[in-house]
């Protein structure tokens, strides 16, 4: 049976969901922020969820009646943008004219795009970036008050450093945090909202593990800043943007809808890993993948952590309890969903996420790759039958 999920408001898109979560104590060192203004506007509707027949292994797999893409035309109803370069970031911005989801997407080569279903992408900004190593334009998040200020933030590698830029439509991108070390490797960085008004920035180690351990370096860190690039109030050390240290090459950064759980994926020398970030420390490895599937974006749902893998098709899901402890081994899902390899993930609500594909970066691209799509998960806490 196919079901469709309607978002409660466009604010649910930008805040990451309207699901109810068990009460948890707030982090001891991060200060609470004033209530943010919700985004007004139409209610985007998510596509129907694909349900396999009983006993099938690949949850979320589209029915076989969906024909393959023809050129840039993709018949999968979850797809909202096609024929892009490698997608490195996605962020919902509200509803399109037909009531579907409109989004921003970034390409590693330097473009920030507005994407809507059946409409050619609109270039919001073209940024000069260095993609000669593992850098480029690799991270995207939105202002907590996007409905009012329309601000987006991106993480880019330049000829001299890695940095965070603030972008307003029709304006030149403005650097707000510069001087993040650049090296022959370890340049990728990712962004997220902390759900309380500040930005989280995960940075690579620039190929030098010593920098990741150096409290005075911005490399190999999870940083927390305000919209102007200054250290956010309530950080573990006053006047410092550093929340935790020890990253090598982060792939994804995600926060639960209530702001209580923060996760970062990383590529270490021995395994791909995911950490739960706590103020003042990176924390112990919450899970590791010795086979190195290329962990990237993640979504922190109420009952699981879903992690994208850029080297293998599908998603990894880790069931967890209300406290955020994993209760079993990862389950590989959607490996035959037609999307292939997935990079960025942004949770829409407790039932669905926005994703971007990375099939042109070593996968098996179809004619409509790379794409931005909506994945509606089976049994999500925020959904219901029509």
From TrEMBL:
Residues of the Glucose/Sorbosone dehydrogenase domain: 105-267
PROSITE patterns assigned: PROKAR_LIPOPROTEIN
Entries under InterPro entries matching the protein: 6-blade_b-propeller_TolB-like (IPR011042), Glc/Sorbosone_DH (IPR012938)
The protein, known as: PQQ-dependent sugar dehydrogenase
PANTHER family for this protein: HEDGEHOG-INTERACTING PROTEIN, HIPL1 PROTEIN
Compositional bias of kind Polar residues: 28-38
Location of region: Disordered: 24-72
Record keywords, A-Z: Signal
Domain of life: Bacteria
Signal sequence region: 1-22
């Amino acid at each position: 049976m196919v079901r469709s999920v309607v978002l409660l408001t466009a604010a649910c898109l930008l805040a990451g969901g309207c699901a109810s979560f068990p009460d948890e104590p707030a982090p001891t060192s991060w200060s609470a922020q004033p209530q943010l203004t919700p985004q007004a506007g139409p209610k985007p509707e998510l596509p129907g969820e694909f349900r396999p027949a009983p006993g099938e292994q690949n949850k979320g797999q589209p029915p076989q009646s969906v024909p393959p893409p023809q050129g840039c035309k993709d018949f999968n109803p979850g797809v909202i943008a096609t024929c892009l370069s490698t997608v490195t970031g996605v962020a919902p911005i509200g509803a399109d004219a037909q009531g579907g989801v409109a989004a921003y997407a970034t390409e590693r080569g330097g473009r920030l795009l507005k994407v809507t279903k059946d409409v050619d992408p609109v270039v919001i900004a073209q940024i000069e970036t260095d993609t000669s190593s593992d850098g480029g334009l690799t991270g995207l998040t939105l202002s907590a008050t996007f409905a009012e200020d329309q601000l987006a933030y991106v993480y880019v590698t330049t000829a001299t450093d890695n940095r965070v830029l603030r972008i307003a439509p029709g304006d030149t991108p403005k650097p707000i945090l510069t001087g993040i070390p650049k090296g022959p490797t370890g340049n990728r960085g990712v962004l997220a909202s902390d759900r309380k008004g500040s930005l989280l920035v995960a940075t690579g180690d620039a190929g030098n593990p010593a920098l990741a351990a150096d409290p005075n370096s911005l490399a190999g860190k999870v940083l927390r800043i305000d919209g102007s690039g200054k250290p956010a109030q309530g950080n573990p050390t006053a006047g410092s943007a550093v929340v935790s240290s020890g990253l090598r090459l982060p792939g994804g950064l995600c926060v639960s809808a209530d702001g209580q759980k923060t996760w970062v994926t990383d590529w270490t020398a021995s395994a791909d890993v995911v950490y739960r970030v706590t103020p003042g420390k990176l924390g112990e490895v919450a899970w590791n993948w010795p086979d190195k599937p290329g962990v990237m974006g993640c979504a922190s749902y109420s009952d699981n952590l879903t992690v994208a893998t850029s080297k293998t098709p599908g998603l990894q899901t880790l069931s967890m309890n209300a406290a955020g402890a994993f209760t079993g081994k990862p389950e590989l899902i959607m490996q035959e969903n037609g999307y292939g390899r997935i990079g960025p993930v942004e949770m829409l609500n407790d039932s669905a996420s926005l994703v971007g594909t990375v099939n042109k970066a070593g996968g098996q691209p179809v004619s409509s790759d790379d794409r931005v799509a909506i994945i509606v998960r089976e049994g999500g806490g925020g959904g219901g039958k029509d």
